[in-house]
Amino acid sequence: MPAGLIDGKALAARTLERVAGRVARLKADGHRAPCIATVLVGDDPASHAYVRMKVNRARSVGIEPRRHDVPADIDTAGLVGLIEGLSADDGVDGILLQHPVPEHVDERAAFEAIDVAKDVDGVTHRSFAGMAFGEGGFASATPGGILRLLDEYDVPLRGTETVVVGQGPILGRPLSVLLLARDATVTMCHEFTQDLGEHVARADLVVAAVGLPGLIRGEWIKEGAVVIDAGYSPGGIGDVEFEAASERARLLTPVPGGVGPMTVAVLLEQTVLAAERRFGYDEEAAPVGATSSR
């Protein structure tokens, strides 16, 4: 029987409807709209498309977007200075630095210039630590969105044999930490992993997060497994051989329409949460993540 599809669009729509309601409450209470500042370096068409989509989605729920498009030749000091200024700006609640930046810029230094209270994309070391130990750090947006999808579809995590393919600092690694915090048994695979197919074949939950079309063969997927494809390549192609995998998996995310919409929804939800904290509200929704039982 073909796999059931995990509908990221539907869950994202419901999440954003709640976000819009929280924005409306802030305004009704006399506060300004939450504000997210986006920082985009250079002229990469895909990055511009991603930022434009995030800005439009923010406007649709009442969040004020402030775009900062900077030339590709900016140096690390210039980018860090811009982000430090946004971190100090009381009118900004969240900061998004679009990844990747040009190679001559120290991306990690730029990420670390983001005030942790405004790190709604969950990219700083401080957010990572807080997320890992259940101490209030904002989740990395894509891993956070993946957890929401797994919860929505009642995918068990405790003790589940899980393989995460890809160890990127804003996807694979933070996702592995979030899964460990939910007591999953996690194996991380990467470019130096030997016999990738053998690792995938024993997993009840597979998350592909590399960006190499068709890397995960359908024949590797265990019968009845859940497959989350967080990879994306031009043309809307994921990391998983979709048709072949759908004949073996129980649940599978489409590309596009699976993980992507939830990434944006979590980003904007965390922006509203940052604003609520700034205005002294009780926690409306805790950041994604939980502390392991042991």
Main traits of this protein?
single chain, 294 residues, Rossmann fold, 2 domains, 10 helices, disordered C terminus
Describe the structure.
With 294 residues, this protein is α/β, with parallel strands linked by helices. The protein has two domains: 27-116, Leucine Dehydrogenase, chain A, domain 1 (Rossmann fold), CATH 3.40.50; 141-259, 3-Layer(aba) Sandwich (Rossmann fold), CATH 3.40.50.720. Helices cover 40% and strands 14% of the residues. It has ten helices and nine strands. The strands form two sheets. It has a six-stranded parallel sheet. Strands 3-2-4 form a three-stranded parallel sheet, with helices on both faces. β8 (226-229), α9 (242-246) and β9 (251-252) form a beta-alpha-beta unit. The model is unreliable at 289-294 (pLDDT under 50).
Tertiary shape = globular
CATH architecture of the largest domain: 3-Layer(aba) Sandwich
Distance between the termini: 37 Å
Largest sheet, in brief, is:
6 strands, parallel
The count of domains is 2
From the helix content, strand content and strand pairing, which structural class follows? Answer: alpha/beta
Rounded to the nearest angstrom, the radius of gyration is: 19 Å
CATH topology of the largest domain: Rossmann fold
Strand content: 5-15%
Mean pLDDT: 93
Helix content: 25-40%
CATH superfamily of the largest domain: NAD(P)-binding Rossmann-like Domain
Order of helices and strands: EHEHEHEHHHEHEHEEHEH
Specify the number of helices.
10
- Spatial strand order of the main sheet: 1-9-8-7-5-6
**Which ranges are low-confidence, i.e. pLDDT below 50, for 5 or more consecutive residues?**
289-294
